[in-house]
Design goal:
The chain is built from six helices and seven strands; from the N terminus they run βαβββαββαβααα. It is an alpha/beta fold. It has one domain: Rossmann fold.
Length: about 190
C-alpha cells in the first residue's frame, strides 16, 4: 500500500520559517525523525519511507503554495495512489497555534493551496491535517501574518506540537482516518 503525504509551503529561504510553511515543517520533522533525506524531483522534493509494510511518499511541492495542485496531481498519478491514501498537511488560521484537526474532506476555507488542489483533482474529498498557526493579526494584514515568523512562545508550543502532527500522519497511515481523527482531534 502506498500513501502520498504532502506538506504545503513555499520554496526559498525567505519563506523557510514562515507560518505558511507549516506543512513543510511537519514533513521535515518526519524526515529528521526517520533519518530521511529529501531528493529534488519533478514538482518538488520527495522522500520515501516504509512504515510497517506501507510505502509513504513524502512530498514538499516546489510549485509554490497557490499551484500545489500540479504537484499533488502529478505524484498521485505517477505513483498510482488513490485519493483515500492522500494526506495534505497545511497551516490553518482558524486554529490556535499548534492545534491539530484532521478531516477526510471539506472546503478549502480560503486557503489557496487547498483551493488549487481541489480544482486540479476535481474534488475536495481528500484528507487534510490542519495545523493551527493562530490569527493574531490586525484586519487587512493576513498576508503579512502568514508570511511572517512565529514568536518565541509560539515556537515553544510548536516544538511540542509538530512531533504530535508527525504521529498523526503515521496514525493516518497505520490506523486509518476515523481512528486518527478520534485520537488526534481531541489533543
Amino acid at each position: 500500500m502506498k500513501y502520498l503525504i504532502v506538506g504545503l509551503g513555499n520554496i526559498g529561504p525567505e519563506y523557510r520559517d514562515t507560518r505558511h510553511n507549516m506543512g513543510f515543517r511537519v514533513l521535515d520533522a518526519f524526515a529528521k525523525a526517520s533519518n530521511l533525506v529529501f531528493q529534488t524531483a519533478r514538482y518538488g522534493d520527495v522522500a520515501r519511507v516504509s512504515l510497517k509494510g506501507r510505502e509513504l511518499v513524502l512530498l514538499k511541492p516546489s510549485t509554490y503554495m497557490n499551484l500545489s495542485g500540479n504537484a499533488v496531481r502529478y505524484w498521485l498519478q505517477q505513483e498510482k495512489i488513490p485519493l483515500d491514501r492522500l494526506l495534505v498537511v497545511v497551516d490553518d488560521l482558524a486554529l490556535p497555534v499548534g492545534a491539530l484537526r484532521l478531516k477526510g474532506k471539506g472546503s478549502d476555507a480560503g486557503h489557496n493551496g487547498l483551493k488549487n488542489i481541489a480544482e486540479l483533482l476535481g474534488t475536495q474529498d481528500y484528507a487534510r491535517l490542519r495545523v493551527g498557526i493562530g490569527s493574531d493579526f490586525p484586519r487587512g494584514r493576513q498576508i503579512e501574518f502568514v508570511l511572517g515568523r512565529f514568536s518565541e512562545e509560539d515556537e515553544r508550543i510548536l516544538s511540542e506540537r509538530i512531533p504530535l502532527a508527525v504521529d498523526a500522519v503515521k496514525s493516518f497511515v497505520l490506523a486509518g482516518l476515523a481512528l486518527t481523527m478520534n485520537q488526534y482531534n481531541k489533543k
